[in-house]
Amino acid sequence: NRLVEFANKLPKAELHIHIEGSLEPALMWRLAQKHNITLPFESVEAIEHAYQFEDLQSFLDLYYQGADVLRDEDDFYTLMWSYLCKCHEQKVVHTEIMFDPQTHTARGIDFSIFMEGFKKAIAQAKQEFGMSVYLILSFLRHLSEQSAFDALYQAKPYYEMIKAVGLDSSELGNPPEKFEKVFAEAKSLGFKRVAHAGEEGPPSYIWGAIELLDVHRIDHGVRSSEDLALIEYLRKHEIPLTVCPLSNVKLCVVGSMQEHNILSLLSQGLLVTVNADDPSYFGGYLNENYAAIIENLDISERQVKQLIVNGFRASFLPDAAKQQWI
Ligand code: ES4
Ligand code: ZN
């Protein structure tokens, strides 16, 4: 497919990726052996076979279990380095990566363990590939506000490595207002802000993320199509949506790729971007997400270009660096 080749070859930015969601089954298997952890799977193929989800929660259960094999600094280095090598292969020249500190600190793994591992891999990618890499500290919304504050303060020695805070995990029943105070504190510390909203949750959660959390971007946001006033607001204020097509199909947020509303959102004038979310769980990295929409939707070359340019526009890169890619 000519358009797939076209998208593969262009320099791209990625804005919605969970590093724990880039843990490939083969690496999970190897780390389980290394640490003498018994996985509830018989083989690497059995892990891959288990990746069939009915909703967000059924995925999150496996995703947190998978992350349990990440124990020492070298594990986190290898996880990050593997993802950054994939970026290099796929012409991702800038990436803004979410990580879930509470998933690790809750298991007794100190901030320094994962941050030092990430730091080495990121320095190497900057050096060897000339990539730019930002980190987004993401709070788990199924945990308490106090736990989010703890994560924010434990990160203090690493603030210069962190560009933004985010909000992820189980959306329904954990609305943005639960995290209003911790986002206000993050803002006063100088962090940018993003939040998952309108993936499974209603448009009111997107309004909440905007009005109470003062976010720069909405992660997913596909349910904004249910609220015309919201669409109008997102368009007027150029608030980006980081859409993840393969994720939405895998988690049954949409019935099929053919039914995905990404082009409808784009043609309504929204700043829509394409992203991988949890590539090793959902069937592909950024290029596979482009391939999926190109092969299943009636998309033009101009629209593919627009989505790629939007990735840079919606990024936290300084304007001068954005200009280089737009
Ligand atoms: C996630 Cl797809 C998705 N939604 C919410 N939280 C997440 N954490 C990792 N992937
Ligand atoms: Zn996500």
TrEMBL record:
It catalyses: adenine + H2O + H(+) = hypoxanthine + NH4(+). The keyword Metal-binding applies. Keywords: Hydrolase, Metal-binding, Nucleotide metabolism, Zinc. Its cofactor is Zn(2+). The record marks 220 as: Important for catalytic activity. The active site is at residue 199. It comes from the Bacteria. It is an enzyme of class 3 (hydrolase). Substrate binds at residue 278. One of its GO terms (molecular function) is hydrolase activity. Its EC number is 3.5.4.2. Pfam families: A_deaminase. Residues 11-326 form the Adenosine deaminase domain. The keyword Amino-acid biosynthesis does not apply. CDD domains: ADA (cd01320). Binds 1 zinc ion per subunit. Zn(2+) binds at residues 16, 18, 196, 277. Catalyzes the hydrolytic deamination of adenine to hypoxanthine. Plays an important role in the purine salvage pathway and in nitrogen catabolism. Belongs to the metallo-dependent hydrolases superfamily. Adenosine and AMP deaminases family. Adenine deaminase type 2 subfamily. This is Adenine deaminase. The lineage of its organism: Bacteria, Pseudomonadati, Pseudomonadota, Gammaproteobacteria, Alteromonadales.
